[in-house]
Design goal:
It is built from six helices and 19 strands. The chain is α/β, with parallel strands linked by helices. It binds flavin-adenine dinucleotide.
Length: about 300
């Protein structure tokens, strides 16, 4: 059996594996797609100490760094079940069962897509999901935010300080964000809020140049020209496979303490799959280090 088995090969998992292996303990990492979300990212400008890098390049250096250590890397493998017996058992889709004294869950998350024509085509060409990451790319331009919940309204407030104009598109008749956020939003001069509309299509040629949406009351279509759209309709943690094995919150995020420990002794978690309030590369790596040190501490006490 492993001492530490990491499930997930994004920034959090790579960091966990390196920190664990550096303690000289038996470490494994199983990942469906090594690199995780950064494989879908083009420019990264907020990975501190690196002015600019690109997702696939960062993913390659994560893997190279993990390979410096004695880590058993199992790629293209999906975990489907976790259960604690004498050891913690992780079952893979191919039927194999891995056993470990401790497990670090770092299965990340995925952005919920609108699922209309043009969205996939213009991803990274005007269609964006992360305002902290991509906001500055739209300085002085016209953008829209889809989604009027807390994350959408926070994104709109953030973007209003950078871009020329922000249009917020909300499917329901009212915004769902907290009222303090709505007050702040409505106080801004360069924001327009349009409610009760459904996004119909993202349009453009080589890059995004507009969005078409339908008024849900009249059924009429409207089109606006813009250079960017931020989709803010939810970040879904990849934790469905865990069922009730560890405690999760209403959003499905794994609840962890300051040491990265979950409700199940010996099982830790890190990165975007947890209830960490902010989801970023540097934050995931930090929490991966925390979870590995937490697991090591657990091993020497048990
Ligand atoms: P992830 O990167 O999601 O990795 C999860 C890993 O778990 C993957 O290896 C996945 O294959 C694996 N996995 C999932 N389920 C299973 C399973 N059942 N079994 C086995 N393996 C599994 N952040 C920044 O700081 N700066 C940016 O500029 C930036 N830009 C972004 C742009 C885009 C388009 C996106 C989508 C995100 C961006 N982010 C950015 C956010 C950043 O990518 C995430 O915060 C970070 O990748 C989270 O790392 P993680 O390791 O927790 O999870």
């Amino acid at each position: 059996p492993f001492d530490v088995l990491v499930v997930g090969g994004g920034p959090a998992g790579a960091s966990s594996a390196i920190y664990a292996a550096r303690k000289g303990i038996r470490t494994g990492i199983v990942a469906e797609r090594f690199g995780g979300q950064i494989m879908d990212t083009v420019g990264i400008e907020n990975f501190i100490s690196t002015k600019y890098t690109e997702g696939p390049k960062l993913a390659a250096s994560l893997e190279e760094h993990v390979k410096e250590y004695n880590v058993d890397i199992m790629k293209l493998q999906r975990a489907v079940r976790l259960e604690k017996k004498d050891y913690v058992e992780v079952e893979l889709e191919n039927g194999a069962v891995l056993r470990s004294k401790t497990v670090i869950l770092s299965t990340g998350a995925r952005w919920r897509n609108v699922g209309v024509p043009g969205e996939a085509e213009f991803k990274n060409k005007g269609v964006a999901y992360c305002p902290h990451c991509d906001g500055p790319l739209f300085a002085g331009k016209d953008v829209a935010v889809i989604g009027g919940g807390n994350s959408g309204v926070e994104a709109a407030i953030d973007l209003a300080g950078i871009v020329k104009h922000v249009t917020v598109l909300e499917f329901n008749t009212e915004l769902k964000a907290d009222s303090v956020l709505q007050d702040r939003l409505y106080s801004l001069p360069n924001v327009t809020v349009i409610t009760n509309v459904a996004t119909k299509e993202f349009t453009g040629t080589d890059k995004l140049s507009g969005i078409t949406f339908t008024d849900r009351e009249t059924g009429e279509d409207r089109h606006i020209e813009l250079q960017g759209v931020f989709v803010q309709i939810g970040l879904v943690p990849n934790t469905e496979w865990l069922g009730g094995a560890v405690e999760r919150n209403r959003m499905g995020e794994i609840i962890v303490d300051a040491r990265g420990a979950t409700s199940l002794p010996g099982v830790f978690a890190a990165g975007d799959c947890t209830n960490s309030p902010f989801k970023q590369i540097i934050i995931s790596m930090g929490s991966g280090a925390t979870a590995a040190l937490g697991a090591f501490d657990y091993l020497i006490r048990n």
